[in-house]
Amino acid sequence: RIQCMEKFLAGLKAKRDEIVTLLQWEICKNSADSQKEVDRTIIYIQDTIKEAKALHNRESTFTNDSGVFAHTRRAPIGVVLCLGPFNYPFNETYTTLIPAILMGNTVVMKLPRTGVLCHFPTFDLFKDCFPKGVVNVVSGSGRETLPPIMATGKIDIFAFIGTSSAADSLQKEHPKPHRLRVVLGLEAKNPAIVLPDANLEVAVRECLLGSLSFNGQRCTAIKIIFLHKDISEKFRARFIEEVDKLKMGLPWEAGVAITPLPEANKPNYLTELITDAEAKGAKIVNKRGGKQDRTFVAPTVLFPVDKTMRVYHEEQFGPLVPIKNFEKIEEIYEYLDSSPYGQQAAIFTRDPNAASTLVDVLVNQVSRVNLNSQCQRGPDSLPFTGRKDSAYGTLSVGDALRSFSIRSLVAAKDEKESQELVSTIVAEHKSNFLRLDYLF
Questions:
Q1: For the chain, how far is it from start to end, CA to CA, in angstroms?
Q2: CA distance 113 to 370
Q3: Which of 47, 125, 212, 430 is the most exposed, fewest CB within 10 Å of its CB?
């Protein structure tokens, strides 16, 4: 399997520029981010191969306990249904597809409705590098194709990145849900918390990147900013200035930060959120805010928002930045406790006492706390998961291999006859499972 994957990786590198171009044209991701997505995927495959070898080598041993010797390895589970999102259609799909294949599973890859074109250059690679039936591709409407697939009961692992409502609906289609293992990456409403002693330059820079890179269309994006009242005015002045400097244009133009939105209904949804917030007291506070031209939506900053507004609770997944003042840290706790999401948070402070107090609370509400930096996924060696409705299961290079496999073992009584039997099997390389070879 590793040799097949290494052959696939070599072919993928040769198609890198073609995939980058397709990402730009279909999902309107700018040039730098499109290149980053493909390059990160290549590195992810390299690292996953390396970790798969290391896992194999760690398992190349026997244990002996209470008169029983055993050989334990991780084995495949069966058929994996992989669904990736439109915003990272290449990278996010491969973060489940690649470990699933390396652990010996067969996969059914459901292509996203938007973001499908970047996969076309890989079809011949899958055909040439893997045995027939290992990688299978399904396209078309998810509502039409996925329920019948799940209803067969033949899916053993459901790897899905999308909304919790869709995940819940599809899991219910499986006739034996107790047998279905799930790996889910779902919604998030990641807050940035800016304390009065924060380094203003760092906080503005990181909140700008965190909330508006790729138009804010990232599950890891900062979706709401909480400003302590003592720093609010200074932060907002700088932040708004930087937001309005962001260049809008087509993905292949140099220096472009804000591009057209690939979802046809998203501009209307963002308008609904803005209208609702304005009706309840918020204002658009940046000059370009609220302007739209077909699927172009100018980055929009709303202030002050409160819990009566939809944008305070809903994941906007677009270039819309709600800001709220706070005075007491308990206001942050209340927000986190009431939120159905728990992926990440970002804290901006130079005070070790304030930081440690917040950290000790936040780690029980979200899965990752970022100190003086934006919310983000990488590096892929770190666990990527979430609490509440934000995730189920953990994806990192190492965790993903475990998510798509199960520990299996061969055991025998520690007696001479069994020892000789197993020794012969191992020495003569008769079994793919009972083996002590080392992979370099």
A1: 14
A2: 32
A3: 430
Helix axes 31-58, 2-14, angle to 10 degrees: 170
Q: Is 140 left (phi over 0), alpha (psi -120 to 50) or beta?
A: left
Overall residue count recorded for the chain in this entry: 440
Of 94, 103, 119, 117, nearest in space to 42 by CA: 94
Write down the pLDDT at residue 26: 96
Report how far residue 41's alpha carbon sits from residue 44's, in angstroms, rounded to the nearest whole number.
Answer: 5
C-alpha–C-alpha distance, residues 401 and 297, integer Å? 39
Of residues 205, 217, 208, 244, the one with CA closest to residue 323: 208
Distance between CA atoms of 311 and 29, rounded to whole angstroms?
24
36: number of Cβ within 10 Å: 15
Amino acid at 106: T
Phi-psi region of 434 (alpha: psi -120 to 50; beta: other; left: phi over 0): beta
Measured CA to CA, the distance from residue 162 to residue 86 in angstroms comes to 9
Residues 95-102 have a mean pLDDT of: 98
Does residue 325 sit in helix, strand or coil?
strand
> Rounded CA gap, 355 and 244, in Å?
31
Average pLDDT over residues 286-309: 97
Closest residue by Cα to residue 311 from 388, 224, 218: 224
d(CA 376, CA 374): 6
pLDDT per position as a tens digit, 124-173: 999 999 999 999 999 999 999 999 999 999 999 999 999 999 999 999 99
Give me the pLDDT at residue 179, please: 95
CA angle 431, 435, 437 (to 5 degrees): 130
| DSSP letter, residue 66 | T
Q: How far apart are CA 252 and CA 188, in angstroms?
A: 29
Secondary structure letter of residue 215 according to DSSP: G
Q: Considering only CA atoms, which of 192, 205, 202 is closest in space to residue 350?
A: 202
* pTM (two decimals): 0.95
| Model confidence pLDDT, tens digit, residues 357-406 | 999 999 999 999 999 999 999 899 999 999 999 999 999 999 999 999 99
